Protein 1
Amino acid sequence: MEAGSLSSKKTGAPKPSWASGSGSHVGDAILKYGLAGLAVGVLVLIAYFFVRLIVEAEPALSQVGVIDFVFGDSWVPSQGDYGALPLLVGTLITSVIALIVGVPVAIATALYITELCPKRFRGPLTVVVDLLAAVPSVVYGLWGIFFLAPKLEPAEKWFSETFAFLPLVDPDKVSIPNYFVAGVILAIMIVPIVSAISREVISTVPAEQKEGALALGATRWEMLRMAVLPYSRAGIAGASMLGLGRAIGETIAVVIVIGNAAVIGSTIFSQGYTLAAVIANEFGEAASDPLHRAALIACGLLLFILTLIVNAIARYFVNKAEEGQASRVPAGMAG
Amino acid sequence: MNTPDPTTATKPQASMNQPNADATPAAAPASAPTTTSVESADGREVTLTDVHAYYGGSEAVKGVDLVYKPNEVTAMIGPSGCGKSTLLRCINRMHEEIPGAHATGKIVVDDIDLYDPSIDLTAVRRAVGMVFQKPNPFPTMSIFDNTAAGLRLSGTKGVDVKERVEWALRGAGLWDEVKDRLDKPGIGLSGGQQQRLCIARTIAVEPEVILMDEPCSALDPIATLKIEDLIHELKQRFTIVIVTHNMQQAARVADTTAFMYLGELVEHAPTQQIFNNPGDPRTEEYVTGKFG
């Protein structure tokens, strides 16, 4: 045992120089507990937000009743009517339109940049798409109401007249600010994030998968459909959910283009309102009315819960994508 | 799109070997031994004339002339970086998928020059199938769908997919192992089974030529032996070119062997001759393990 373990050395014997040192590292300890403290701080902050929102919203929720608040369809603060359903519906309709319009564009952009475009355009195109995220949302709102909405109106009218038989379409109910315009503006705003994450996911598809498809005689499009999209579908679904989260919470651009009418619009070209927009618009006047103020905070609570749910779903998809990739490697390498 | 399509234009003999030939499914298990059922046919001769391949400015294959005989297995050997894999990838024109890479020269299968500008790239790849180094089944697809993947592409029409899948899986010696779980994911199989699944996927589209790029390098010895046995079966039906680092493997499976060195073809001769009586001193040094 002469060459044996270091700890079994006799206590009086001097340690060799490389073994000197205290055994504990103060720097590491500070780092560990410091970072742990910060991480806990974030959690505490979120919990505090949540509790605070509930406490502040409580007067409205107890006065109106939780069910009547969420499912009441009349929001008239001057009469003390606080039914948030029109706002909730507005948030959901605009966000879904944003997804339907924005996600295909984002995926197509990501596929083009990673798989089809010549290498020298790849960098510049990526920068341009990412720049869409750098435009302030109030600018999107102004552009939407002064340029996009008037330009879209004739097309919306034509669509409503031609497809009047469809549900949610009525030629007599087309207003310039409406759900659809808000959805399109939101779509433009979510394209950069959905596209950036999809790009990352798509670039992880192994070359041998793509070559496997090409070697069978696949065209480029068939290769994308056979090898690239199935491999990255879970990641793309997660990216879309993150985009949805962004669309649900977006405020200023929506305030400008949605018309701010607290009713459930009967068509997708009707004016409406969203949870975020109502808070931004009415908070000033609510300062003198505690019930109104509490009702707006309750809207915030509803919005918070909605985004939490969406983010949880996104996380589920992203985790599934990662698990799938992790389990693929050993299966492929196993003899 | 009136391009000459090597898979359909010239296939009088091949059509006799389509699985529908033995139409009664009940008769098939009785007549055929359970493992493989690839019948013999004339493969196709592949003629390479002055083939050069480049990665950007550097020349990886420097003017190779070579004939792959039908119904023979040709092994390509040589030290790493000698251009053997690159040459292989020129034959189904996968080489040019690498950004900046291109190839020149003439590669003729069935009197059709695969580098003819008017030819359809997907037709080339249907005529010249490829098995890769690492098994690469499509991870989201079942065993059945993996085998049928090539049959569902736009270039293949009028095929009874179910019958062809069974035929291909029998041909790859995998049918008995997977017939009860065709709907299970392909990546649930072992590595050796996955590689045979990839071979089934390749032969399902009935190519004339099969290229194998070190098909056993990720497999254990038993799985390797199974693939080698399979190669013996497959050569009854296809022309096979296999790149390998393993000289024992070349000796076991190949009828002829080609030795490449620094982008050039040094020697192509019957395998026995390459290993026992090589014509070039560089070949002798390589096969006796003096370098590479």
Note: The first helix of chain A runs from residue 26 to 64.
Protein 2
Amino acid sequence: MSIEMTRRHLLKQISLGCGTVVLSPLVGQLSAQAAGKRAFPQRFVFVVKSSGLTPGHIVPDNFMDDYIVQKKSYIAGEGYTSGVQMKDNDKFIKRSLKDAVLNDSMKSLEPFKDRLTILQGLSGNMVTGGHMSGYGAMSCMKDLMAETIDHKMARLFPSVFSHLGLSTVTATMGARFANSVCYPGISAASNTKALPFHGSPTQAYRSLFGSVASGKNRKQFEAQGNLFDYLGEDVKALRRTLKGSEKVKLDHHLEAIEALQKQRQGILSMSEQIKRGKPELSDKYTNMTIEDRLDAHCEIAAGALISGLTNVVTIRTDGLGSQYTKLGFVNGQVHGIGHGKVPEGAQSVDHARGLIRGFQLDNVAKIAAKLAKIPEGDGSMLDNTTIVYFSDVGDKHHASNREWPFIVLGNMGGKLKLPGHYVQYPHKGNRGHHTIASWWLTLLHAAGKPQDGFGMKDNNVDAESQRGPLKELLA
Amino acid sequence: MIAKTKIIFLVTMSFFVLSSHTLIAEKGLSASKFKSQAKQFFKENCTTCHGAKRQKGNTTLHDIEMDFKSAEESRRWLAVLLQLETGEMPPKDRDQPSHEERAQLISGIKNQFRLAGNPIELLRSAPKYGNYVDHKELFSGEHKGPSYSRPRIWRISPYIDGQSSPFSLSQAEGFKDYAHMWSVDKPTIELLILKAKAEVERLIGPSEAELKIQDQSWKKQILTKRRSLQLEVKSQEEQLAKNPENEGLKKKLERTQKNLERNVATDFEKDRKRPSNKLHQLKRNVYWRIAYAPEVPTVEERDEAVTRVLKAALRRNPETEDITRMSVRLEKSITEYGNQTGLQITMTSILLMPESIYRMEMGLGKKLPDGRRMLSSAEIAYALGYALTDAGPDREIMKDLAGEKLSDPKVIKAHVERIYDSAIIGTTKRRGKAERVLRFFQEYFGYQGATDVFKDGTRHVGHKPRPSDLIRDTDLLILHILKEDKDVLKQLLSTDIAYIRHVPARPGWETISSYNVTQKEVRTKNIISGEKNRNNQRYVMKLTGQRAGILTQPSWLTAHSTNFDNDPVRRGKWVYEHLLGGVIPDLPITVDAVVPADPDKSLRERFNKTGDTYCQKCHSKMNPLGFAFEMYDDVGRFRKNELLRDNKTEVEVDSSGGIVQSGVAELDGPVDDALELMNKLSVSSHVRQVFVRHAFRYWMGRNETLDDSPTLIAADKAYVESGGSMKALIASLISSDAFLYRKD
């Protein structure tokens, strides 16, 4: 009762503050709630690492005997193969994580164990393997550009910024830090349009939180208003000289600029909400280390979700050229490590990879912790947030894509019957095996947009099991 | 950030005023008179089958409304118009209205559309309606024009805009970039702003403080590298100690030692690569000076800065007027937001001026007595440059622009020939580019769709070519024909040679199984030795008796197939429209087209099950053309037997087909297979004219009208007289009135 009252009260206040142009998704949610409907948007964070995610490395320590064989270690130069490999499995396994001792790299996820899923056994051979699969990981369309799952979700759960891309590197193979808009080549809106990512944390900060920032950033956001005016002015000047369909063309152009101006006002009207999510600027936003970059990007991601500016974030954690320097080893370039070069200070390649993975998962945990603190409905924002951690290639540095593991935190507001489990599907070649397309289909299904197939099919996997979602995971 | 550009739906435009003289000529009836005329016509000719009692084909006309604005009624009227124009209705075996009655109703319907603000030319402005203008009339020589295009702004294509362009193109079959097709929507502008901002930041460069930070990370990188080199030297020395005789190891160690020496020798203050050492260079940059100076910039500095950005954005020398306006804008922005932010938004706004997003073809040149205005020389320079390339006008064109020679069609022709020679024939020293020429053929034939049709590999064991390789095979074949530049269309439709990708050292990197040849054959029977191009890794073979032109290339056949089968309907439709110039209406929405999947029947037998007379009206024209291609399977391999859906039984292939109701008596008749069909079509003058019409559409960026008749006839003549030269055809089109003149 009291919650209901508070909501109505809040709704009233926000509506008054907003004036007539209401773009705030928050207001929409609240009014729906006031009318008795649950209408929280589903939020998604896709955290995409490079160099593969080795299945053996995310099996809980005390489950290892059941699922893992220790093999002789990797052969340097031959593409990296870890010493820990999965036993061939022909059964569907679902085992509670309650008593699981998580791998060292996953320790920071311990507090979220009841929300955690380790998803194993899916394959992705419709997609090019090797160093990278490009858009394929999220589109399942071989090496072609095609709409990726994060963009599909962004369409289903739109907000002021429908898709927020954050990347530390300009390209998968690259070493360069991205310092402005970049196209890391993992997300696309269609077969002709790659999605842009923010490379520079400061730029991303400015564009998202500039409206409520102070100093130079605030000034830049204000200047945006003038920019739209200028753009409109120039289009109008040309429009006066035209007739007929050309004039209509510019009318569309003008409408688009006006819509942007309105969006900007919408952002201004959301300032209370944005203030709540806005992270504090610090050195890490400008520091030139991969560790600081990722940390800053993750802060921005959490802030953008909390403020309702976006519901879908994709984070590109690193590239094959990225050099880690703060994780207890030096000289650790992802590509080199992948090829079996043990960086100084690390005990082995597996150890170094573990440290990198651990660092990335620490940041995932930070996002989760922030969202868990923000109340929403009877619980917290984290209840309606799903974080998917995976690699843009499958199982290892030179991936075969025969295995493609995922670490999932969250259950799409209860739509997925996942959390708290170690889930393993039968390996390729066994009955009941599925591809990663089935996993993306599961998300679409749970989001209320069921479809039959996703991307291309793997000709060596039973066609029927490539149809529809993973039924075992749907609530 | 969804980025979608949308096609303007012209039907919704209610305030459009078109004063084309062809329309003015039709005085037209008032709405009430038209209504009684139409009702009378329908009663006499149509409503017996399409009325209250019978609704053949689910179509009724007794209840059609006189509403030419609503989308629903407009759709019905357009269907009626098409039936009247093509003479499809009333059916041949029924009483026919007189020619005058038919013509009267046709012009009446067009007039009503015009009065409603939806002129028929606009309703049919999409590429797929190109054939709706009567072919015989177009080439009759009776229509004297004059020819012109409307003044227009043409959104820059994604090819011109370059990598990561937010602009999109149509995914539908056919030409993708008509001038009127695209506008810019919100997500696109958002992306454009992001791109422009990044560009502005790059142009301005880092501040001194930012350079200091970069210095630190640069230094750190060198030290890390040093550490790594030291370790490498150590490990290589150890290896060498174990194998002191190994020359390879010795050399490797020497290299690493040298690298280390160079690294150690780095002078952290003076090194050229130290970011701060770029400072003196940056200080020469007017943007940098303005952005980071403590004082307000002078008028000269402002003018210099805006002139430079304007030049980049407009791809030309800006007018004084533009410079003044932007300089004032810069001053105002700086007053309001300070130097850096003020400069940033002004520069961003300039990069996003409509002129940098659209190509302008307004007709700013001299005016003729008949009201047409020529493009100005500058407009011609850009229209010409972008007609053939994505890079715009080259140095030679700009030279002629400065020399004021560009308004002469002969000069324009010479430029087209020069660009074609350097890019395609390769006779000149400097090799140019003409990306848009090959793209015409890609969009016309549509073979690039091969990558979009998913094929289940289990049906074709051991056959795994990449569709992208097949497409490239066809690209190279077309370029080969364009290079010869003789009887281009005939060659395109009937050549028996094929480019075949084969990389002996890398198994699987080949398309040879698509062409039914063996590895040994491609090596021994390679015919054009000079063209065994190492970079393209392709062999060239004569496949006489199996292939005849682009339509028999595996890429085209795959692009025009379904997941499991050949698609005779799409293939037939393509031939009927693109070679015979016919009109096939859109699939009626009432039709649920399904081909039965009987496992024991051939595709032809399965098709014949759908022998409904209503369907046959269109399918009798398409299917016989498509069936001629049954000599290939759905991945484009030549075959004698067809494997049925049961994946076991094979039956002999029947590739007989024919040309039906082409409108050209000498073409109609049966054919044995695709080879005969293509050879017949490749020498037809009618087919040649249809091809010229398509080239016109691509290079004008619009559909033709009867006024364009002189331009089309001249282009056709140029092609014939030059012995079938594509170069001559393009040169004729680009120096034509339709290309050079504008009129509202």
Note: The CA atoms of residues 320 and 335 of chain A lie 5 Å apart.
